[in-house]
Amino acid sequence: MALPATKKIDIVRFLKLSEITPIADVRSPSEFTTGHIPGAVNIPLFDDRERESVGTTYKKEGRVPAILEGLKHTAPAMSSKLEQALKIAKNGKLLVHCWRGGMRSEAMAWLFSLGDIDTEVLDGGYKSYRHHILESLSEKRKMIVLGGMTGSSKTHILKYLNGSGQQVIDLEGLANHKGSAFGSLGQPPQPSTEQFANILFDEWKLIDRNLPLWVEDESRNIGSVFMADSFYLNMQDTPAIILMMDVKTRLPRLLEEYSTYPPESLKESVLKISKRLGGDKTRDVINAVEKGDFAKAIEITLYYYDKAYLFGLKKKSNKNIIYVKTDSDDIETNALKILDAAGKINWT
To answer: What is the pLDDT of residue 1?
Structure first.
């Protein structure tokens, strides 16, 4: 028996409705974990093992045997799936999607309808969502990249700018990583690269295109997370304001931040860049950490990071770079200098 016709909507309509209507992602748990629409609730039609079994049956025997195989797995759990849907539905409505907007979402929409839930299914499924967000993240926007060597308090300055009414997306905050070999210290687990793009889009879609957007200068990867290629390339082709601050000015804040971590964690982080530091410098840093001489450890490490960052700056177009020198570590003072520099950007 054919399933009742389902109401299918495109991704633009789906995202608009999702502002007030909950989303049920009916893909398997592993699919959901790899990446999902922020805020969606996973009510899987199949678990990972069941999905593999149904997929194998479909490939070997065809559609109808695969449906029968699926029913063997899902029939006993139908009531609990409907109960979950009833709990999350709002005003009797629910949005539903699977990978491609096919049989899984249609089957679950039918099941939910038995509980008088009005469902709408995403045409093209999660695949269409991913296409939509990656296309959006590739768009050129009026963006300003804030750069500077490690310890220049860029993240703090961006928070100050955000509090002053500027548009800011905290890429490191979204990635749960501070960008260096020490960036995972004190941070929760990182999202997948796929999920990072999803949560980035969640902020990106709210940005006023007529006003500048501030982001921090980053390499293509932030820890284990990689930015979408088009988004990263756009960052390289947009105005950058680079805060120039000497080591002595940066050192106190870095000491305050990193000396609180266990020595073993710091040494593990140092070993991640040992090949680039070289054997002698790696030993010097580890010895300094063991002796509690964090100032020396930081200075040696900064030498490597400063050299790498200045090399990376050479890849940017000089016409898009504004250098701002400072001898102060005061966040407000440096934020005002940066805003003054931003006022000199020619957007034409």
So the answer is: 42
Higher model confidence: residue 177 or residue 65? 177
Establish if 58 belongs to a structural domain. yes
Rounded Cα distance between 104 and 260, Å, is 50
Q: Which residues of 106-135 are buried (b: 16+ CB within 10 A; e: fewer)?
A: bbbbebbbebebebbbbbbbbebbbebbee
Q: Answer yes or no: do 34 and 174 share one domain.
A: no
- Pick the catalytic residue: 45, 95, 98, 241? 98
Looking at residue 108, its amino acid is M
Q: What share of the chain is helix, strand, coil (3-state, %, to 5)?
A: 55, 15, 35
> Per-residue confidence at 329, pLDDT binned at 50, 70, 90?
very high
Determine, yes or no, domain membership for 347: no
The helix-helix angle for 48-61 and 63-74 (nearest 10°) equals 160
Which amino acid type is present at position 12? V
Q: What tens digit of pLDDT does each residue of 282-316 get?
A: 999 999 999 999 999 999 898 888 888 888 787 77
pLDDT at site 148: 94
Task: For residue 203, count other CB atoms closer than 10 A to its CB.
Answer: 17
CATH classification of the domain holding 116? 3.40.250.10
Q: Is 98 tagged catalytic? A: yes
Report d(CA 326, CA 307) in Å as an integer. 19
Residue (of 81, 87, 131, 128) closest to 109 by Cα position: 81
Q: Of 63, 98, 133, at which residue does a domain stop?
A: 133
Same domain, 259 and 216: yes
Structural domain boundaries, residue 67: 8-133
146 and 274, same structural domain?
A: yes
Give the chain's domain count: 2
Same domain, 260 and 311: yes
The CA-based diameter of the chain, rounded to the nearest angstrom, is: 75
Mean pLDDT, residues 117-141 taken together: 97
What is the spatial distance between Cα 154 and Cα 150, in angstroms, rounded to a whole number? Answer: 9
